[in-house]
Amino acid sequence: ITTSLLSSNMPRPNVIIFGASGSGKSSIVNMLSGTDRAEVSSGGEGCTFESRPYEVNILGRYMTLWDTAGLDEGDGGSVSNIDAVVQLYSLIRRLSDGVSLLMFVVRAPRIRSSVPRNWMLFRDIICQGKVPIVLVITGLELEENRNQWWCTNLEKFRQDGIYPHGHACITATRGKARGGRFIFDEEYEESASDLRKLMVSTVRVTPWHVPAAEWFKSTFIAMLVRNIFGIKLLGGALKQLIDVCKMPKADAKELAERLSDADVP
Q: How large is the angle between the packed helices 249-262 and 214-229, nearest 10 degrees?
């Protein structure tokens, strides 16, 4: 990385890396930057509690990677941690240079039930389908053929409504040291190359600035109508969160209110 170039005033594409805790987001930052700047957890708890930027050179294009807090399932496994969702939404809203790419990191082999909800929440509702989104699958170190895993599981993603602009099945760790090298060195370097090519081919040329979520307002209009006239009316925010993201009504109501509060300057 050339420091002088990275410190220039030219705006760089913002790439938001999101997913569950322990999915490998920080490992991907380290892979792409060629350093160990992002702290990596050894288990599933995760160690990133706030969004952190990392400036990197991706095949000659300078980008800012944002490592974000994990979107974990709630106690009942029904909805992601609301604090993490609100934090990520606030980050996307406040980026003055806009957003150019979303990178959704999912750890194999078990695909959590929250994956399609998180996908739809950020792709369809918050970013309104305006930002390219790629799917990065980690945890495939022991797979004989990483790409075969994608072919095997492709139909499951499609059934869940997940159609990424591109995907990468990667090895995000070099593994244990053995014989003067790391056991997954070759797979790691191949993965880094695949991921860089994917980013360059999918990043949005003109960044998209996420507007204030107008649909939140209809939630409170609906609440007002109900309170004054006693009419049961489902606001647009709740309807989208319930119908599109399949959230329980109580969770959807809390999330809509929290996101609306995040829009207040």
A: 120
**Residue 217 predicted with pLDDT over 80:** no
pLDDT at 70: 86
Name 166's Cβ contacts closer than 8 Å, sequence gap at least 6. 132, 134, 135, 198, 201, 202
* Tokens 């805790």 -> residue: 21
Helix ranges, 140-248 (H): 146-159, 185-202, 214-229, 236-243
Do 237 and 215 touch, CB atoms closer than 8 A?
A: yes
Q: Are 65 and 172 part of one and the same domain?
A: yes
| Pairing verdict, β 101-107 and 181-182 | unpaired
Among the residues of 24-167, which ranges form H helices?
25-33, 82-94, 114-120, 146-159
pLDDT in tens, 239-250: 667 666 777 777
Domain containing residue 257: 214-262
